[in-house]
Amino acid sequence: MRRSLLFSSFSLFIILLFSYGLVAQAPSPQSVLGFYPTTDKTIADWGQITDYFAKLDKGSSKVAVKEIGKSTKGRPLIVAFISSPGNIKNLEKYQRISAKLADPRNIVSEKELDELIRTGKTIVSISCSIHSTEIVASQMSMNLAYELATANDPDTKEILENTILLLIPSSNPDGIDIVADWYRKTLGTKSEGTSPPELYHHYAGHDNNRDWFMLNLVETQAITQFYWQEWFPQFVYDVHQQGQNGSRFTIPPFFDPPNPRIPPSLLRDVGLTGYKMAADLQAKNIAGVATNSSYDTWWHGGFRSAPYFHNSIGILSEAASANLMSPTTVTREQLSRGRGRGLNSVLDNATNFPDPWKGGAWRPADIAQIEMTAARSLLQLAAKYRPRFLRNFYDLGKANLTRVKDDPVAFIIPAGQPNAGTVSRFLEILMAQGMEIHEMKQELYVKHEKELPGYHELPLGSFLVFVNQPQKNNVLSLFEKQVYPDRRGANGEAEQPYDVAGWTLPLQMGVEYETIWEIRDLENDRRTLKRVETLDQAREVMNLGPQVEPFAKLANPLKTAPRIGLYKGSGGSMDEGWTRLVFDSFQIPYRSVSEKDMRAGDLPVDVLILPADSENTIFRGLSADRYPAEISGGIGEQGVENLKKFVSNGGKLVCFDDSCALVIKRFELPLKNVVAGLRRNEFYNPGSIVKLEVDRNHALAKEMHENVAAYFTNSSAFEVTAENRVNVVAKYAQKNALLSGWMLGEKFINGKAALVETAYGSGKIVLFGFRPQHRGQSWATFPFIFNALEK
Ligand SMILES: [Zn+2]
């Protein structure tokens, strides 16, 4: 009696403490938002998501939320650390352990290593909705966090004890709000569930997941710093959505080809994780899960591919989409169209797809259930085999320190290059991802090429990047020329890679570099080298002043002050966004020119740029079937007529890549794109670096080299049909035009025009057959753009 009385007064006391907020309690998402996230037709914006995580941080000793930077538009970029209360209290300790394991040179003995592995935690990062229309994961992240913070089952306890989860509710907060605003505004209208009519990242849109070695975007910079300078996660899981008609969920193992610089054991662990997820999903009778299809590991620059080059396990999942947060229905007829590489049909079962989904209603909650199951599956694996994953991580870093026959010793960036500013940015990009760079303090004698006899002296002030460092494979993958395997379908046509085929960074940026196979006497005399610890140290060597802030803005290269217009269609164009990024980085003033401006005419600019977009996109724009009339319809006939008037009256029109087609046709220019209409067994180049031969006498080629590396991605090559009317500024090389990547049928473009200028009325038209600012990466050809802008 007495005891139960005591007990009930104690309970009452606790209840009172809770109700006065004196004892913290993890709040449910529903209690904060007023709805259960991932319910049909609900959406939480970034303010609500960060508010929820702040309250969860306050209410749970298992959660700590940290801001790691700001987005492009100034929103907080947050990470929620989720683990046991004891681990959360000691985050710094576990961060130090992970950082030590990432660099085996810091570990002095086997005993120390054993102790680190015994006490360390598996660091797992899950990042949601980098692609903002793939919205469900950002909403699901709140449910996942709440479940981990409150569940008391043995499985959750094991996860919390053995892993530290770094949960990123979205790596693109600006996009969450763009999508949430558009979704709310259009709910119940004909536009409900459509993509917002703008880029969901200010500069990059969908290409924000193409930035992971270049670091053009502040979001990529912040997360790269967090991952590869601070936490060194052993797992990075990037959660995406794909189209509606394919598999319900695609996970690793991935499709071919693999990048040869990914260590085999890492590829195996990627596969292991995917199969664990697949098995756990099947155990819940979730149908439609595909492995070994569509996505490959060739290309380097994605959220889940960068980890491979830091000895981490990178996982991507792609769930079938709904209509943003509105449900959809998928019929068997639609499913009959859903196929991809490695998946001939989603109606029939296969070894990599044993349980086809039958079609029917498909809701955000279905996506969330799959993603939650996959996330927990990964966490469980990381928890159960904690020592194994920590040791593998260490072993990979350790192996990278030993030279392998046939690998070069180092790459050198020789002193005395004319474009020191570009070299500085290049070094900054490498250092920001944790790469080690050395400065030469005394002469070194090296063997440049494998077959060249004798040693050669390197100029003082050169920089060396040694291959044997913990992130060896990143060094190799960024410096080497890619040789994409010649992969064909049954009909002999080229099989499309997942993304581009080649990206060699110094080539793209126009930075001179050399491959070194041997350095004389280096082992005896290390004094000749000094580790470059900061960018300012490197800039001092190049006689550049200190840099005020990371990735600082650059000086405007223009000598004149043209009024620049940049066409911006209503649908949002990634090439337009990247052009803005280049202009903003170089502080070049410009104004955006809308479809409406084009239709109205009288453009108040001297030069107008049409970024790379198809004729159809520019001319027709968004469809009025799904979008409001005021933003649909493209530039139309009236826009084309006004464009002609603009040039006739003395304006300059500059076209990038795809947009050349519309202008050649509508302006009846004496040019023909020789690769248009060729089949993929005749010509194919899905994204490679090619060599240009430049006419240095032309004003557009001012201060350019005779040979320039340019970016070609399903681009154009021109034949001039009336030579007296067209100036050819640059041609694709007569032979050996492919520098890095993959190109079938090179002969079709050898010697063909790549960059031309032609008069039209009193004005001029400049046509770039290639992408002069591809994803803000191809610095080698930026000067062509700057020259084209000058009055
Ligand atoms: Zn995506």
Describe what you observe in this structure:
This protein has 791 residues and is α/β, with parallel strands linked by helices. It contains 24 helices and 30 strands. Strands 19, 20, 21, 22, 24, 25, 27, 28, 29 and 30 form a 10-stranded mixed beta sheet that branches. An 8-stranded mixed beta sheet has the order 1-2-4-3-5-8-6-7. Strands 16-11-15-12-18 form a 5-stranded antiparallel beta sheet. α11 crosses α13. The longest helix has 21 residues. It is globular, with a radius of gyration of 28 Å. Zinc ion binds next to loops.
How is the main sheet built?
10 strands, mixed
Structural class: alpha/beta
Mean pLDDT, rounded to whole units?
Answer: 95
Principal-axes shape call: globular
Strand content: 15-25%
How far do the termini sit from each other?
95 Å
Write the layout of secondary structure elements.
Blueprint: H1 2-19, H2 29-33, H3 46-59, E1 63-70, E2 76-82, H4 85-89, H5 91-102, H6 110-119, E3 122-128, H7 136-150, H8 154-162, E4 163-168, H9 173-186, H10 218-231, E5 235-242, E6 249-250, H11 264-283, E7 289-290, E8 313-320, E9 328-330, H12 332-335, E10 360-362, H13 364-384, H14 386-399, E11 410-413, H15 420-432, E12 438-440, E13 445-447, E14 456-457, E15 463-466, H16 472-479, H17 505-509, E16 514-516, E17 518-519, E18 529-531, H18 535-541, E19 564-567, H19 574-585, E20 591-593, H20 595-600, E21 607-610, H21 615-620, H22 636-648, E22 652-656, H23 660-666, E23 671-673, E24 688-694, E25 707-712, E26 718-720, E27 726-732, E28 738-740, E29 753-760, E30 763-768, H24 782-789
Parallel strand pairs: 3-4, 3-5, 5-8, 6-7, 19-20, 19-21, 21-22, 22-30
Antiparallel strand pairs: 1-2, 2-4, 6-8, 9-10, 11-15, 11-16, 12-15, 12-18, 13-14, 13-17, 23-26, 24-25, 24-27, 24-28, 27-29, 29-30
Helix pairs in contact: 3-7, 5-6, 7-13, 8-13, 11-13
The structure holds zinc ion (ZN).
Zinc ion is lined by residues 131, 134, 240.
